[in-house]
Design a protein that fits this description.
Strand content of chain A: 15-25%
Strand order of the largest sheet of chain A: 5-6-10-8-9
Number of strands of chain A: 19
Largest sheet of chain A: 5 strands, antiparallel
Distance between the termini of chain A: 24 Å
Oligomer: homodimer
Number of helices of chain A: 17
Structural class of chain A: alpha+beta
Radius of gyration of chain A: 23 Å
Amino acid sequence: MSDELVASIKATVGPKGWIADRSGMARFLQEERGLFRGAAQLVVQPGTVGELSEVVRLCHAAGQPIVPQGGNTGLCGGGVPNETGREIVVSLARLNRVRGIDPLNYTITVEAGCILSAIQSAAEAADRLFPLSLAAEGSCQIGGNLSTNAGGIQVLRYGNARDLVLGLEVVLPDGRVWDGLRSLRKDNTGYDLKQLFVGAEGTLGIISAAVLKLFPRPRAVETALAAVRGPQAAIELLARCRAGSGDCVTAFELLPRIGIEFVLRHMPGSVDPFATPQPWQVLIDFSSGESGGAVRNALETILERALEEGLVLDAVVASSAQQAKQLWKLREAMSESQKHEGGSIKHDVSVPVSRVAEFIEAASRAVHAEMPDLRIVAFGHVGDGNVHYNLSQPVGADKAAFLSHWGKFNRIVHDIVVSMGGSISAEHGIGQLKRDELAHYKAPLELELMRKVKAALDPRGIMNPGKVI
Amino acid sequence: MSDELVASIKATVGPKGWIADRSGMARFLQEERGLFRGAAQLVVQPGTVGELSEVVRLCHAAGQPIVPQGGNTGLCGGGVPNETGREIVVSLARLNRVRGIDPLNYTITVEAGCILSAIQSAAEAADRLFPLSLAAEGSCQIGGNLSTNAGGIQVLRYGNARDLVLGLEVVLPDGRVWDGLRSLRKDNTGYDLKQLFVGAEGTLGIISAAVLKLFPRPRAVETALAAVRGPQAAIELLARCRAGSGDCVTAFELLPRIGIEFVLRHMPGSVDPFATPQPWQVLIDFSSGESGGAVRNALETILERALEEGLVLDAVVASSAQQAKQLWKLREAMSESQKHEGGSIKHDVSVPVSRVAEFIEAASRAVHAEMPDLRIVAFGHVGDGNVHYNLSQPVGADKAAFLSHWGKFNRIVHDIVVSMGGSISAEHGIGQLKRDELAHYKAPLELELMRKVKAALDPRGIMNPGKVI
């Protein structure tokens, strides 16, 4: 990187807009778990879209590679630079204004650096709901959420991040700003360009602002925990819940016995509501704008009938917000509690909802054949066909030795996923972590189409090189 | 077109797969209203995706332009060939199999030539809903619906055609088949290529099959007609309906007094349910999977409160399915009844929902300034910000003379739409009709991006040339 380029960038963003010392840059150069670490000559934090545009223009002219970064909460290393030190990180953190909210249009316009929970709060203050919700919501940024097409716990009802965006403003790889910041429900005037940038992990341009859809705030949320024999019963119960509630199901999470045990063992204050240990459980949220008790009735009716028919083994409907929170704790603590059980080899995969049980069965047979005493913790958003298929090390095993099998188990599990028409990255994206897996599994024709799109939009290849494609 | 190419295509599709005589081709070469007419050397109707692929491969090798065609119900001439006779029409009509339905996954897999109403019926037979619904549903094909990102009357709750597709199979401009026929709710493995083909009006490839989302069938649908002072009151009522019903609003249509009068005058059996003529009316559907009357209560409660506060002037909630049908007839007959009032200059536009009233007011002032006695019939899907802003000729005027002002009024109305951040084609697309308008209004940078995408995917420019871009 030439001194001239560095000087021009510094002059563009001013003294508040760049960091060049090692300790100041540290938190931008690795992700929280330390799984990905990189180096950079400069971390740039533009304070306006104009500054961002100019920085990208300068980099484009010099062929300087850029790594865009949001809240740096990604799990696949998509926002972390490589180790060469030749890249610069462009953080969107200072572009964090809510530009406007339009309650009658059910939209909010935000800059890329807005923290997800701040957007949720701004919507709530206007008696609206922004439904995107995930574990990192207190620190992740919406630009990153859109660039990775984030999922989370309410996808079943409201869709992924992609489904929540009406318009985008994007700084293109040559620094020009595309103003696609429309707030329209219907617009059929040519190719829907915003779709290219959503989920592209910063490889086609930098999202600088977005118009997001808002929804009515639910007036009633009812939570239940239902014990079922297994995943197939869970999926059948899901179909009944959707059909019997007018599609009021906002969350439907699968919890295996072993996951519950991990939580009970490691998370103080967690409680299993069932007297008898149950093999599998599903955590269900019904939401409604109608507060007259109809949605609770619907939930109870469906569960009662399922109990009579043996589809559900036992069930509890939360009688208070506090009890609902208690039930949710079982789900929310599942990843964290696994850490206490040693090494864990993770898979964020999806299959058609109807094939979740078949997938869990086939994958479990295959990984147990390879290592009989590893512990399978398959949980998550089964309402979307999305299973966090995690493998905890055998009791007493060496963590590092177990984790050295990561690639092998990935191959076993992903082979089964792909054979069922599934996805090897349901919601976390590709980044660096799964780039080789993508190349291995994606059809050559699809990779070719992706490369054509990349070459058309970023011919100099400066946008987040080495990620995704 | 060389004799050799013609012979190869005929040999590929067999005797049932092509039409070359003038009378047989006629219905493929113009759309129903006769607004667009073209010529072609051949109409090809492949019977399998393999045949379709081979036909496109042959055309690609020869540089032969192709016009893909679905049910030929489009309103912008996107499926009609030009007048040179150098193009061929590729009709998808024979690719009309439902390949499968998966009720537990809430998906259906269909070929491009499936008639929309046939898909609705197949879903219903499996106790599911396919919510895309529009006037042409008895003859339009799903491939065309997806290629134009069709809208219709339930967009408010279920989204446009784009939002209803999980996967696509596409024959690319060089004849290769991209199998993106996934049926996953979550898949973050690279660029979402299917989005490129949805709404591209056949300019980037030919959609041959799709996986579509299904929904629970509503158990209760409640219909109301509410009289309001004007569009602003309608929009405020909409926001209350969404918030007060748990987002059960599936349709919200604005009907102006003059439109009602046209229907009452020309459509036998139509009835105005209000004793006093009302200036504006909104037709509202609430849908729910819950059949215990909660949704009807919600609707009645919202309307009663709005009546007390003067937001609503009068209202009727249908007491039977038949009465609901009667009310819907007022909406459905609006386009048809306008034909009896002479020439009509049409605009299918959208603005942010919150600006619908401002738009109607500004546009009406401007067109009346130009021609004081023309009759403004502004109606439609205001729940989506989508207004069919139609101008009926003055009483007794010459139809042809009135229609000669089409371009002038388009410019007046579209200028206002664009100044409000709106769209000059909300749901009908661009085709031939609005190609020049698109070039006039779209930002040069956006047109450039669209051309880059087109060049990347269809470098020889054989896919539906002269449409959209």
